[in-house]
TrEMBL record:
GO molecular function terms listed in the Swiss-Prot or TrEMBL record: DNA-binding transcription factor activity; protein heterodimerization activity; transcription cis-regulatory region binding
GO cellular component: nucleus
Name of the protein described by the UniProt record: Ocs element-binding factor 1
Listed GO biological process terms: positive regulation of DNA-templated transcription
Chief localisation class: nucleus
BZIP domain boundaries: 22-69
Native species: Morella rubra (Chinese bayberry)
InterPro entries hit by this protein: bZIP, bZIP_plant_GBF1, bZIP_sf
Length: 145
């Protein structure tokens, strides 16, 4: 029975060279396991960091989309109000022309000199106001919406 035990434990127990090689293998295996564990931990941390960055960027993106939508709605509202003002300007210009024609008829019939105002074309110089008007102050909220 002792011969069976000797053959099973062949050289590693009896030869110190084999024991040193086995010890180095064991240390290398432990080192490799530890390195693999650190690598897994590092990859897990990178994955968590990237996941957090994705959620942060998605939140920022949704905030930008909401901001763009709000600005588009404000633009549509301003454009609508601007169209109403343009229509009112055209209507008032037509009324002024009608009143000027009535004044011309009165001037011709009565012979009195009547001051007939000139009708400016708002399309030629839209930036020039026809009469002094108080400046319109816009609030900061108007542009931030």
């Amino acid at each position: 029975m002792s011969s069976i035990q000797r053959s099973a434990s062949s050289g590693s127990d009896s030869d110190p060279r084999y024991a040193a090689v086995d010890e180095r293998k064991r240390k290398r295996m432990l080192s490799n396991r530890e390195s693999a564990r650190r690598s897994r931990v590092r990859k897990q941390k990178q994955l968590e960091d990237l996941t957090n960055e994705v959620s942060r960027l998605q939140m920022g993106n949704s905030q930008l989309v909401q901001s763009i939508n709000a600005k588009e709605q404000a633009y549509v509202a301003f454009e609508s109000a601007n169209n109403v003002l343009r229509a009112q300007t055209m209507e008032l210009t037509d009324r002024l022309r009608s009143l000027n024609s009535v004044l011309q008829i009165i001037e011709e019939v009565s012979g009195f000199a009547v001051d007939i105002p000139e009708i400016p074309d708002p399309l030629l110089n839209p930036w020039q106001l026809q009469c002094p008007i108080q400046p319109i102050m816009a609030s900061a909220d108007t542009f931030l919406r």
